[in-house]
Specification:
The protein is of the alpha+beta class. It folds into two domains: about 25-110; about 115-225, Dynein light chain 2a, cytoplasmic (Beta-Lactamase, 2-Layer Sandwich). The protein is built from seven helices and five strands; from the N terminus they run H-H-H-H-E-E-H-E-E-E-H-H.
Length: about 240
């Protein structure tokens, strides 16, 4: 008898292919990331709007600076929100969120000192500047200040808008009165600066002023700093 042939091994069962994990949708991922970036840009604009309001409240900005800068940020915010509402995946908002314009607006609407004078009564002791304010307006303000001074011990500083959008600021002192002409409405900080400079003028020249000395060559004038830019360059 022939020996039985060995049994052939059973072939292994074929390995079933495992399903691949679904790849993330690159379009969806890009849309989500873009939306997050847009929301971050919107939040930065909201913070800048709050900062502009804070700076105006603290007297750092004048009314014109606040209005121009706040309107710029509000416009950016509204345009970005409309773009995202129409197309959540749009990248067009990036062109709207480009910074830099508000710095120009801050400089453009900053009030500049055009003229400065110190008066003894209605007589100027010293003047500086090329844009002279209308004499009748100045005279009326000085007369009104004299009336207030006769009624109260410390008359308040005052300001008045005149022609061409300019503003006159009047700072009363113990011996003299300072007058400044600004190109636009000054901020509260600028008003305080003029007041501090005039206080320093009277403090530095106290003895001479008490003696009735009003000659410019015998007095010092710290107000000249108003006409200089940082670094010492004179404003012309």
């Amino acid at each position: 008898m022939r020996p039985l042939a060995p049994e052939s091994p059973q072939p292994p069962e074929p390995i079933a292919p495992q399903p691949r994990p679904e790849a993330a949708n690159p379009v969806h991922q890009t849309t989500v990331e873009g939306r997050l970036e847009a929301e971050s840009a919107l939040e930065q604009i909201r913070q800048k709007m709050a900062l502009v309001a804070y700076e105006f409240d603290k007297g750092i900005l004048n009314r014109a600076q606040f209005s121009a800068m706040y309107a710029r940020y509000r416009e950016q915010r509204e345009v970005i929100e409309r773009l995202l509402e129409r197309d959540p995946g749009t990248q067009a908002w990036q062109q709207v969120a480009i910074p830099g314009q508000t710095g120009f607006l801050r400089r453009q609407f900053e009030a500049r000192v055009l003229y400065y004078a110190i008066y003894d009564g209605e007589t100027p002791i010293v003047t500086q500047g090329q844009v002279v304010p209308p004499e009748p307006v100045v005279k009326n303000m000085l007369m009104a200040l004299a009336v207030l001074a006769s009624k109260q011990k410390s008359p308040p500083r005052g300001k008045k808008q005149i022609e061409h959008g300019r503003w006159l600021v009047l700072i009363p002192g113990k011996f003299t009165t300072a007058l400044a002409l600004f190109s636009l409405e000054p901020s509260a900080q600028q008003m305080t600066l003029v007041q501090d400079l005039h206080r320093d003028f009277e403090r530095a020249n106290r003895i001479a002023l008490e003696r009735g000395i009003r000659l410019p060559d015998q007095l010092v004038f710290p107000h000249r700093a108003l006409f200089e830019k940082p670094g010492g360059a004179s404003v012309r």
